Amino acid sequence: MELAGSSAIVTGGAGGLGAATVRHLAGLGVGVAAFDRDLQGAQRLADELGDRVVAVGGDVTADADVQAAIEAAQSLGTLSIVVNVAGGGVRGAGRTLDRDGSPHDMEAFVGTMAMNAFGTFNVTRLAAATMAGNEPDDDGQRGVVVNTGSLAGLEGQTGQVAYAAAKAAILGMSLPLARDLAAVGIRVCAIAPGTMGTPMMLSAPDELKDRLVSSIVFPKRMGRPEEFALLVESIVRNPYLNGENFRLDGALRFPPK
Length: 257
Ligand SMILES: NC(=O)c1ccc[n+]([C@@H]2O[C@H](COP(=O)([O-])OP(=O)(O)OC[C@H]3O[C@@H](n4cnc5c(N)ncnc54)[C@H](O)[C@@H]3O)[C@@H](O)[C@H]2O)c1
Description:
Elements: E1 6-11, H1 16-27, E2 31-36, H2 39-49, E3 53-57, H3 63-74, E4 78-84, H4 106-131, E5 143-148, H5 152-155, H6 161-181, E6 186-193, H7 199-202, H8 206-214, H9 225-237, E7 245-248
Parallel strand pairs: 1-2, 1-4, 2-3, 4-5, 5-6, 6-7
The protein binds nicotinamide-adenine-dinucleotide (NAD).
């Protein structure tokens, strides 16, 4: 994808991996709408990075908020890059049966699906409708979408059933989205990160961090948010990457617990 004149939406743009992506794309000269329900966090980033970045507050599952993000990105260039990073866990999600045998809270399961899978699909479908109107490049390319799954979507651990299902849904969308959107020249890939050293992860107790790092093969450390952003850039730039999920994990395989 040609970066000059392009703009991007990065959902979850105020968070650990999202902010690194906003920073990286803006550094490449792309105009970026940092879209997050944490408007203050997104605004702090926009203030720091200057007029290439606009903060948009809102929820990825709310159509009007997504449209506002699309318009903000369009004001900075031709919207041709969408990076869906917003997601995470929801309070109350846990084991299918908890320790006293009670079944999983259904609201927490649905909420996890909404925050991750429904939000990712919602932003993709609305942004694709806009990007379909772009002038195609020599390959017929009009845009690219990069979604964020997790190793949990491939190797979900005990107590992660809702998150694992939601991330598996995101990874499962890559190929059918790529097939659907081929008609309008939009590529779709996803990244499945392992254990990333976001500010929140780095502030965890040393004992927990040591345990998490112990099963990473090499390099023997958490992934850096900039390494996530670098993979986003590779996917955006390389027109032959499509319909694929990429692990970013230092050869980590999640153990059962
Ligand atoms: N950090 C890791 O080790 C890791 C590993 C695998 C996958 N991931 C995934 O990467 C993504 C980013 O993770 P992170 O560690 O940067 O998390 P984070 O909590 O720092 O960032 C997530 C951001 O998304 C925003 N957000 C959440 N729900 C939203 C919604 N409905 N609408 C708009 N914004 C919303 C939050 O406000 C937050 O700023 C998540 O999808 C996460 O599941 C992270």
